[in-house]
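Protocol check, entry for the methods section draft. Step 1: assemble the input record (protein sequence plus ligand SMILES). Step 2: submit for complex structure prediction. Step 3: store the structure tokens unaltered in the notebook. Ligand used here: flavin-adenine dinucleotide. Step 1 record:
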Amino acid sequence: MKRRIAIAGGGAAGMMAAVAAARAGAEVTLYERNDRVGKKLLSTGNGKCNFSNMDMSSAFYFSRDMNAVEHILERFDNQAALSFFHGAGMLTKEKRGCLYPAAEQASVVLDVLRLQMQKEGVTVRTDDKVLRLRPREQGIEVVSERGSALYHRVILACGGKAAPKTGSDGNGYALAQSLGHTLVPVVPALVQLKCGEGWLKAVSGVRTEAKIRLYVDGRPAAEERGELQFTDSGISGIVVFQMSRQAAYALLGKKQVEARMDFLPEFEEGAYQKWGRERLADRDGSQSVEAFFTGMLNKKLMLLLIRLAGLKPTEPCGRADEKKLRKVLSLCRDLGVSVTGCHSFENAQACAGGVPLSQVSENLESLKQPGVYFAGEILDADGKCGGYNLQWAWASGYIAGRSAAGKKDT
Ligand SMILES: Cc1cc2nc3c(=O)[nH]c(=O)nc-3n(C[C@H](O)[C@H](O)[C@H](O)COP(=O)(O)OP(=O)(O)OC[C@H]3O[C@@H](n4cnc5c(N)ncnc54)[C@H](O)[C@@H]3O)c2cc1C
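Step 3, stored output:
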């Protein structure tokens, strides 16, 4: 008799689990609460779906149990993801390490997964939310909005809480908790940060290259370099997203969080200081302060730094306090903002925390309720921007699917 497997959640992890389990010989039913599968997948990578990365290592991931994350990613790596998609007929392309479908359309990835599910005979039940799991002697009863049925194995792939409009609103955590699991606190990750400074509005919309360091209670917690964007109420851009999970956990723990920005990261400090001293020594006193600093940074940003140093942009350089002029030069290398919050799960691309990997076996089977498996973002593993979260979804989905179907070869 074929093993009957139910999967709760038709996202990236659930669809991969469905294909893997069906290929391993199981009879698979996938439950998706939305009217179609893969809604979130369509919005990934700005609609182009950055589905993995050529530069793959656990350094791009966070979890309370990094050994378990490494073990999963080693067993289904980026090459495995590439062969899965190539084998299904999808052409791919690489841009600075990031992997995309060659068509640069997320819908292509979704189509490929849907066709694979169809080919493998997966039954897809859309508009059918899994409400409860009831362990029975013969298996697990899945109670859903449209009925109940008994399965030998169940895979929970309900996602986390990020972008809840796509269907992943955190209800999967409650299903896990009902089976005796606890949760690593769940916070938004890959999200904008809110900052307390009133001057932000003056530079809202400015994009600039920066090195940004995050400090928690005065201690360095993260560092990134890339394009930073100021918003009305904070800072954004991939550099900020990459460190938002550290900020979110620190704020949850009521710690003080600060971000410090260097807008000229390519300059060696000694050479910059020398250049600054020479510029100041040679300055034309009749030139305005604004004119003196023109050419160094984004104009709006420089005007802000001039004001923050206590100078007026229009005042002549000759009359300006030299200490304040030097202050402007130092603000170009080190401007601090107090991080007061993160944007909500609505705006987050992922979430950190979830079902602890210490509560599942190496094959992602629950240690609390045998027969139940987990895959994807519902687990306590989150990656940086760059295709790492989807790689986790493919890897954990594949392993949970094969294992639930009884294959121990992954
Ligand atoms: C805007 C945006 C852009 C992103 N871009 C990228 C990117 O380019 N690269 C990358 O690697 N990652 C990206 N991510 C992150 C990535 O999309 C997620 O990490 C990944 O999709 C998680 O997959 P999942 O299957 O675990 O969860 P989800 O994709 O959230 O899927 C869970 C599914 O379960 C369904 N569901 C929930 N509860 C139930 C229930 N009780 N019964 C039935 N169904 C249920 C939901 O409707 C949903 O369809 C992005 C995320 C967002 C929001």
